[in-house]
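Final report, closing paragraph on structural work. Over the funding period we assembled a curated collection of sequence-structure pairs, and we close with a single example.
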Amino acid sequence: MATRKEHRHHPRHRAPRGVALTLRREAGDDEEPLHLLCRDVSRNGLGVAFPHPITPDTDVEIWVALPERPAPLHLFGTVAWCAAPLGHWRAGIALNLERGDGGAWEARFNGPDPQ
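Its predicted structure, as stored:
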């Protein structure tokens, strides 16, 4: 039986210290953005803690503020999964690196550990 790890295309890394994540549904122009805790990152995805469930296949816009960058990266993605292990909602977001600042995000992973 395949494990979760076998489905990953790129290794996960702890979220960089000081990262700030803001998210809203792509079709949710009238919604307040959520300020979320980023748990882990990879070249093509984010692991995020959520205050409530979010439906898989939801398209989202994400702004990732990194301490070493003067402006947040504007990314787009799709919620791949959402679950509440131990009662805390978490979600995996698959990034679309062809949109927004996807190229700049991807470039962070071309060198050493992106911490």
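Residues 8 and 109 are 15 Å apart (CA to CA). DSSP finds one helix and seven strands in the chain. We thank the funder for supporting this effort.
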